[in-house]
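Appendix C: a fully annotated inverse folding record. The material below is reproduced so that readers can follow the format used throughout the book. The structure is listed first as tokens, followed by the designed sequence.
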């Protein structure tokens, strides 16, 4: 199974040739629920982690808000099973049974935040040969992404750690990595997904363009409104048509341009060498947005997102960043092992 993004509704580099040099490739990952092995690229799947190497732990401060007690990976999996089972029953019998209620109540009561180091959670692993927009350091062909599933003081999303390695050098694979005794939110536990990488072309969000070019893009976007039907995607949205349809794809991806949304662009510079960092990996809440239908792959267009669908086809990884945003990871272009940064966008 592959995933194929439909062609963009216009070739914007032909319409506005000044955009042509700004074209960048990105690899959409298209994560979908499945049972990945350590030898496959995945989101939320098992990592090809050497049994001889200690599993990383976080030594930060772990506290959960009083009204939202911490949970655990095992409880989140159980809760998801109960929800899925209920949704799959015929309409009218989807309420929880007394036994299910008892389990859900027990899980909702939460569990204490752990004292001491907390095992990181596997978030993704990507083989470079499948994801061409990754830029590995010399000798590496596998990227592994883990995070501590807590918001640390002063931070508003999980702290990620990146590991580059050579798959051939791994040897014996760790089969049962330690699990954190607690995580802050169920939204921080990724559901195991296979990925179906697809390379596409992106352009910067209008807000990243110089004022002249931005004005041209907005004028062009406004003309697209002509003839648009009320209620259609490009009706009354003249300033955002380019942003929505032509610049940056929704969902998980490697490379490309940053999905700036609620803040102005904040360029990220490498704290070791000062180079301007570039978008490396987007950890997304949603694969689709209601106002960005044209990015939905042909293969998924029949699966209209229904309230009753579980999991939601728009959110196959079950991860939520903030109120539904992205965690954008930036890397140093010249030295992939320099520390990365991450912004919510
Ligand atoms: Zn931590
Ligand atoms: Zn650097």
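Designed amino acids, in order:
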């Amino acid at each position: 199974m592959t995933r194929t993004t439909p062609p963009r509704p216009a070739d914007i580099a032909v319409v506005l040739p000044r955009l042509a040099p700004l074209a960048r490739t990105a690899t959409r990952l298209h994560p979908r629920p499945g049972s990945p092995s350590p030898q496959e690229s995945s989101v939320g799947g098992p990592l090809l982690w050497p049994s001889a190497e200690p599993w990383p732990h976080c030594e930060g401060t772990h506290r959960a808000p009083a009204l939202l007690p911490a949970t655990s990976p095992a409880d989140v999996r159980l809760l998801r099973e109960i929800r899925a089972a209920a949704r799959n029953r015929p309409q009218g019998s989807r309420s929880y049974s007394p036994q299910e209620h008892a389990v859900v109540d027990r899980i909702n009561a939460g569990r204490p935040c752990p004292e001491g180091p907390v095992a990181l959670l596997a978030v993704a692993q990507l083989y470079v040969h499948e994801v061409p927009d990754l830029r590995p350091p010399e000798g590496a062909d596998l990227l592994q992404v883990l995070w501590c599933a807590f918001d640390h003081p002063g931070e508003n999303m999980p702290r990620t750690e990146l590991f580059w390695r050579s798959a051939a050098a791994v040897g014996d694979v760790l089969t049962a990595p330690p699990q954190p005794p607690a995580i802050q939110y169920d939204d921080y536990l990724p559901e195991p997904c296979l990925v179906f990488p697809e390379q596409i072309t992106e352009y910067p969000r209008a807000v990243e363009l110089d004022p002249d070019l931005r004005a041209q893009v907005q004028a062009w976007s406004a003309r697209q409104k002509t003839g648009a039907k009320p209620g259609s995607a490009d009706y009354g949205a003249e300033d955002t048509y380019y942003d929505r349809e032509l610049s940056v794809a929704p969902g998980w991806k490697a490379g490309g341009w940053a999905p700036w949304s609620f803040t102005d662009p904040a360029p990220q510079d490498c704290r070791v060498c000062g180079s301007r960092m570039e978008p490396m990996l987007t950890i997304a809440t949603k694969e689709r947005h209601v106002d960005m239908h044209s990015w939905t792959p042909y293969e998924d267009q029949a699966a209209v997102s229904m309230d009753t669908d579980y999991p939601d086809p728009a959110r196959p990884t079950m991860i939520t960043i903030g109120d539904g945003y992205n965690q954008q990871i930036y890397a140093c272009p010249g030295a992939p092992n320099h520390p990365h940064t991450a912004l919510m966008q």
